[in-house]
Structures are given as structure tokens and as C-alpha cells.
Amino acid sequence: MVSFNSLLSCLVVALRLRLGATAALNGKRQTSTVPSFVKDYAPLVWLQSQDPYFPSDIGAQLQHTKPEVNFVVVPNAPNPLTLNNLDSLNAAGANVYLTSVDDITTKPAWLKGVKPDASGKTNGAISTAIIVNDHGSGTVDAFYMYFYAFNYGPPVLGRDVDDHVGDWEHTMVRFLNGKPQAVWFSQHAYGEAFSYNAVEKRGIRPVAYSANGSHANYATTGTHDHTIPGLNLPRGFLEDKCDQGTLWDPTLSAYYYSYNANTKAFAAYDPSYPVAWLNYIGKWGDQQYPNSDPRQREIVPGVDATARFTSGPTGPEDKQLNRTDVCTDYNNLPCVIRPVRGP
């Protein structure tokens, strides 16, 4: 016959096991849930009022492109190409270009993306990837990666320069113990960093201004010359223009991921999110057309940087996700976190 003490002991053990299992489950949930501060302090983006190229669905881009290397279609590429198999193209190397199946000079509708609605959502288009890198010791970087199907470069001397299929831009917020410290704004080859206290905010959320056509991110509205990386003047040779056109909330249509810098592995916070595409090392647009292509022309013959059409960009995996400083590492420029908002 089982004594009362034995039953009590069994009950205590069972209760401890239950509590332990619950704690373990809670721990699992914590590691598989987007940190609340990543959403709470996610930047909002003002799209420029004259920009016809809105944020675009990341996956839909694959439906309108074909993978090429040196203008030749990659043999045995998956068909259809999806976000779940895009990384298989890595077998063909880093010079794979997701090349438009349409003549982009005809301005096919898919290049124009989706205009955010009154709530700031790009309905039917998941146009953002939010990637969280926990450095440890309380330091967390949250990358807000924005995708556009087309980049319309600002005119130079009245002529189009640096147009290309595919455009990845981003802002990054660095947190310490869940509190935002600084914000990075990507701008062409480089960008700018400001303290969180310095940036414009709506509530507690930082505000970024997306430039007309190029989608470079700035901390202020107005005109920005980016001839010299990291130094934005009110006038110059290469001008970006920003204003309060359409307010976009990138969190409303986004995939959320964590990034392990040690293993260089991405993990989805939701198992329904595709992951393989993040490992793709190729380009998200056409290769720069040769001068023999009737669509191409250069302001200065022989200078690629003055070409009308340039090559598409690399994706999120190439955006220095494990950076030491808030800024990207570019030509040994010092990382200056500006304490006052300005150009």
C-alpha cells in the first residue's frame, strides 16, 4: 500500500518536472520571438511625393526575372525560382544577375511596386526583411531591409544616371539592453549615423526620408548632395530629394529573422517565412548593359559611373550584418555618430 508521504513525494516531483518543462518552453518561446523593442522602435519611412517606384514584393521579383551570368541564362536553374530555392544559384558564383524578362525601358508595371495604404502597409507585397543580430552583452543590431523593384538614379546634367533593376536599402538601429542608441541610414555606397536622441521621431519610432528614385535614406527632408560619401550638402552634382510624400510602415508587411554571426546562419522567427533566399550571393537586377546595347549610354564615355543603366545590387547578406561600429566599413572612413540632426 502506497503511503501518503510517498504520494506527496511523487506529486512534488511531478510538479517540479512540470515547472521545469514550462520554464524550458518559455525559454524556447523567448528565443523564437522577435524582441519587442525591435518592433517598438522600428523606423517609419517617408516616401518622396514624386517617386513612382514604391516598395516591392521580394518574392515577386523572381517572377519577372531570369538568372544570368554574362548575359547567358544559368543552365539547370530551378523553375520556378522562389525564395525557398534562390540560394541554389550560388553554385554558379557571385556573378549571377536576376535579369528582367522585360525591356525595362518600356517601364513594365511590376517595376513600380505597391503604394502604401493609409495605414502605411504595402498590401499584397512583403517588401521588408527585418534581421536581428544579437552581439551579446546587451548589444543588439536590428536591420530594416527595404526592397524596391527599380532604382531611378537622380539625373546628372539633365540625363539619367545609375538606373537599375532591384534596389536594397536599409536603416539599422543599435540597441543596448533594449534601449535604442543610434540609427544608421544607408545612402548609396555609404550613409550616415545619428544618435537616437537626435533623429526625428513619431512617438518613439525614428523617421527616415527615402529619396526620390534612388531610395537612399536620410534623417532630414530636403535636398542632399551625395557626391562625397557621408557628407551631405544642400546642393551639389549628385542630388537626392526628400519630402513627406507617403508614409510607409515597413513592419506591416515584413519577414523577421535572426542572424548568427558565428555560423553566418539566418533563422526565421516564424516557420512560414522563407529563409534560403537570404543566403543568395548574386545580384538582384540586370548586369550593366554594354555600350553596344541601344538602351545604354554614358555621359562620359568609358566611365561606368556615368552610365544610364548600372548593375543591380547585392542583397541583405552583403550589408555587413555583423559590423562592429554602427556605420558600415567603407574606405576606412571614420564612424561618426552625429549628436544633432542635419544633412
UniProtKB/TrEMBL annotation:
InterPro entries registered for this protein in UniProt: Vps62 (IPR009291)
Lineage start: Eukaryota, Fungi, Dikarya, Ascomycota, Pezizomycotina
Pfam families: Vps62
Entry annotated with the keyword Metal-binding: no
Name assigned to this protein: Vacuolar protein sorting-associated protein 62
Recorded superkingdom: Eukaryota
The keyword Amino-acid biosynthesis is assigned to this record: no
Organism (species): Heterodermia speciosa
Signal peptide: 1-23
Keyword annotations: Signal
